[in-house]
């Protein structure tokens, strides 16, 4: 117990804050000595053991000592006792270094914080050894669960160590969807929205420049294009679907073949492809949107918003993917389709599409 000399001298009392000048963290024993109780009592108060037989006055004395001394509980020790922590892990293969995909981290971080959790982030750049070590570290910290994310939408193999924790796949999915939950962009809906921008502009002969690279986006965005044409009563014409490498050079290189199709509008697989198409059309003396309307996909702000004219496109919902991943991990979101949640890709209409006079 604290002696009368300590209480009547300069030592801390519950009512008088004292500035502590120290080079090491406050210990449990120091809190116990300041409150005049055992370390076991302090531990019971810190861990909020309401059934423990501790007088309310004693609890308050311990809390005052904790506050005045600036004691911080050992999070690792608490994690071991509770079996979990207030951390959520995020393991990514390149999201943190990819400007627009980095919004996945932003969304996950905001949503985690909203529910009282902090995010532990590991960017592995595809290094499997680093990935294994990152997951092991997160398991040691008893994270609430782990988000496993890729910088582009694709199927993935779930690391075995990931299955030792609750986890959600973000922007990727496992072919075995029965054993894992995933949050992905709705590529087909996005492709439909992109095509509908052109349909609303009065266009009927619309080309689609798809990617040569196999991916869920290649199939989904084509399906959305077909669905939009069908809903508008326009027969699908396979000759209006071209393929090119999904970058600026690919879009530029597709221009010659596109112009042979006699179309009034074109929907591009992504914004980089649309940027190259802009160059190709201008070299051929064509104006956007007066001669031909153009729509992209991704809404990469550094491209879409700064082309002349600014590019109509569809946004990949990276922020919402991260936020939805956290909600799914915490059991706040459930999918009507079982373990897969598809996030809508909103249309972003700019000046590359104008109302077309042809019926």
Automatic annotation (TrEMBL):
<feature type="domain" description="HTH lacI-type">
    <location>
        <begin position="26"/>
        <end position="82"/>
    </location>
</feature>
<dbReference type="InterPro" id="IPR010982">
    <property type="entry name" value="Lambda_DNA-bd_dom_sf"/>
</dbReference>
<keyword id="KW-0805">Transcription regulation</keyword>
<dbReference type="InterPro" id="IPR000843">
    <property type="entry name" value="HTH_LacI"/>
</dbReference>
<keyword id="KW-0238">DNA-binding</keyword>
<dbReference type="Pfam" id="PF00532">
    <property type="entry name" value="Peripla_BP_1"/>
</dbReference>
<keyword id="KW-0678">Repressor</keyword>
<keyword id="KW-0804">Transcription</keyword>
<dbReference type="Pfam" id="PF00356">
    <property type="entry name" value="LacI"/>
</dbReference>
<dbReference type="GO" id="GO:0003700">
    <property type="term" value="F:DNA-binding transcription factor activity"/>
</dbReference>
<dbReference type="InterPro" id="IPR028082">
    <property type="entry name" value="Peripla_BP_I"/>
</dbReference>
<dbReference type="GO" id="GO:0000976">
    <property type="term" value="F:transcription cis-regulatory region binding"/>
</dbReference>
<protein>
    <submittedName>
        <fullName>LacI family DNA-binding transcriptional regulator</fullName>
    </submittedName>
</protein>
<dbReference type="InterPro" id="IPR001761">
    <property type="entry name" value="Peripla_BP/Lac1_sug-bd_dom"/>
</dbReference>
